[in-house]
Amino acid sequence: MRKLFFALTIGAFIGTTTAQELPVPSPACKIEQRVGLTDVTIEYSRPGVKERKIFGDLVPYNKVWRFGANKNTLITFSTDVTIDGKELKAGTYSVFATPNKEEWTVAFNTDTEQWGAGNYTSEKDALSMKVKPEEVKKHESFTLMIGDIHVDHATICMVWDNVRIKIPFKIKTDQIAMANIESAIKEGKDLDVVYYMAARYFHSSKKDVKTAMEYIEKSLNVKEGFKCLFLKAQILEEEGKNKEAIDAAEKAMKLAQKEGNDGWADYISETLKRLKEK
User: Fold this and answer.
1) What's the rounded mean pLDDT across residues 154-170?
2) Which of 14, 94, 129, 254 is the most exposed place for a label (fewest CB within 10 A)?
3) CA dist., res. 91 & res. 77, Å (int)
4) In the 8-state DSSP scheme, what is residue 124?
């Protein structure tokens, strides 16, 4: 009986300790970023330098590396992208790198279930590219980030120890946006909002005020909205048509007040004051 009690006690103790959550040397990280109309997600683990020599030692030169720690780094693009002049289809890919002092090879691989690089094969690469490493100040934790964000392009950046590499990518945002506009117009629901959003896109992203104004007029023909009128006032001001801008802004403010949207009414009022002081 004493032996049975001892065995049960040990079993319970082991069960408790194995269920314990403890810190890990290379913690997991997940970053999500929208670029234009494309969602980009990166999931990876972050090893530290820990007074070790990294590149050329812990991470050997001329040998495929998992681009992080633990399970392979995964990147997901919600739409097709272009990297190094080559198209990469929407989907999830594991990322591998082959470092060197002068040049790295970075590969986006279709095998997303690997742990390490032992089973890596270039035959499953959807895309690979060459990049030049840059020397930077020491960075303790392996870090991936998405920066230089524009409506149709951005850059994936890796920095660890004293090395940084950059992977620029492009997106066909204009094509996606136009397809979305055409689809929404064809659907025919809330066309005042559809036309207003199209006008805003052409004004802010395309810098095409002529097309923006065409969509504004279409929106106002469906329904007079204060946001659309205010956008019209902004464009008229940019065109140097101050009197017409004041007229549109006054109309927009009255509509905002009528709808009880005090925040917008105050904002439009400030613009009106500035326009009248010109």
Assistant:
1) 97
2) 14
3) 5
4) G
